[in-house]
Write a structure and sequence with these properties.
9 helices; three-stranded antiparallel beta sheet; 21% strand; six-stranded antiparallel beta sheet; Arc Repressor Mutant, subunit A; globular; Beta-Lactamase
Length: 249
């Protein structure tokens, strides 16, 4: 009976994870296919979530309900990393005019927890809540570099070409992660998106794990290697101060 209850919770959470900023409204078939359960089972789950106000049903589509909005507002208000990091991120953005993001690792993804957009017209666009692969881009690599061997092995098995600069060779990728651990920063030159150069610095917890990172990104035509090199010491110092405030290290 206890196992059935746990499974029900897992299935309900799987339904909620189907909704993203790009897919905010889904029909029953789409949800059923996404979670790998029969339509009849999915209908029972969504029906319960609708009755609790967690989902909202309009005609034949579903969206997140008011209860999720309220819970999200509470979670965001009490999530310390954003509160601590945001002033530093804004200062860095104002100084460089480039986009600055705070990322964390959730399961198999790099997730954007906070973002301060570039002040320039041509810019790197990221939204809070966006999820990206851990194996592509500076932010993903710097989070993965300090993860356990099991996680690294899992992600290294997923390597595939996104752009001409994406790592696809396992040995070269593992060597890149080792280099990141030596220098405590990662750089991506168009690995996930052509023409974008990004720098990511880990934010370490008490156990030297990089559960968060700060990333700055912009078009490589103006945000080049010279500018990145100048910023590395400053952002590393900034991440140390953020770490001290979040983790009290």
């Amino acid at each position: 009976m206890k196992e059935d209850s746990v499974r029900s919770v897992e299935r309900a959470f799987a339904v909620l994870k189907c909704f993203t900023l790009d897919d905010s409204r889904l029909n029953l078939t789409s949800i059923s296919e996404a979670i790998g359960l029969p339509v009849t089972t999915t209908l029972r789950i969504t029906g319960t979530l609708v009755s609790l106000g967690i989902l909202k049903r309009d005609d034949r589509t579903y969206s997140l309900g008011n209860e999720i909005y309220l819970m999200g507002a509470v979670a965001r208000a009490h999530f310390r990393p954003q509160q601590v990091a945001f002033p530093y991120m804004k200062d860095l953005r104002d100084e460089t005019k480039e986009a600055v993001s705070l990322y964390g690792m959730e399961n198999e993804f790099r997730v954007c927890y906070e973002h301060v957009p570039s002040l320039l017209t041509m810019r790197c666009v990221v939204r809070v809540g966006d999820r990206f692969p851990l194996w592509a881009g500076a932010g993903g690599k710097v989070l993965l570099a300090y993860a356990g061997n099991e996680v690294v092995g899992r992600e290294a098995a997923k390597l595939k070409k996104i752009t001409d600069s994406t790592f696809t060779d396992r040995e070269k990728f593992l060597a890149e992660l080792a280099a990141i651990r030596t220098r405590d920063y990662a750089i991506s030159r168009g690995e996930r998106e052509d023409g974008i150069l990004s720098l990511a610095i880990p934010i370490f917890d008490r156990d030297k794990r990089a559960s968060l990172c700060l990333s700055i990104a912009g078009p490589s035509t103006r945000f080049n290697d010279e500018k990145v090199s100048e910023l590395i010491p400053r952002i590393q110092e900034m991440c140390t101060r953020i770490s001290q405030q979040i983790y009290l290290v």
